[in-house]
What we know:
218 residues; 4-stranded antiparallel beta sheet
Amino acid sequence: xxxxxxPDGPRVHVVSTTCQEFEGRRYYLCGKxxxxxxxxxxxxxxRAVWIAWHxxxxxxxxxxxxxxxxxxxxxxxxFCLPGxxxxxxxxxxxxxxxxxxxxxxxxxxxxxxxxxxxxxWHAEQYEKTVAALRATHSANCSCCGKQFEASxxxxxxxxxxxxxxxxxxxxxxxxxxxxxxxxxxxxxxxxANRYSTRRFCDGCFPAxxxxxxxxxxx
Length: 218
């Protein structure tokens, strides 16, 4: 771009290949970007330039170097765009490089996993996994009070019952599954578990009368 075509505003001064200056602050090459970690404010040079020229950067947006050269931090080389678009842009640029890395390391990875060192590592991981799955801790059943060994792999770590029978009994006692039914003999409403086949109220329930729970005159 010709100097006459450049927009008016603060410019980036290139001090050296590892140092650039903007609005009195010096930014040094750190990894792939020029940064100023010692001062307050925006740390990365390309973002500081965009803010000086265009204002705050919207949340989840990135500042992109249009020509791909991260050392060219002049305002006309910068463009702000959503982060996901920016990531895709660089992903397309590196697609061939990433594919080649995959082909290179796939063979090496496969060879290592088949080596003695790899097999030893897998055996160690297997033993750790088995030990974790078999780990237990002592707990008291909330229904019968019996102490039992509970699995430590339960996600919430809250094992309340020693058996399915105790769990079912506790649920029945809680009445969470109770529904209102009408006695087929006397037409009185009563509560019964929704999963039971009971059709009679307490006064007419044959099984309770035969066990002597209720008198015949009831």
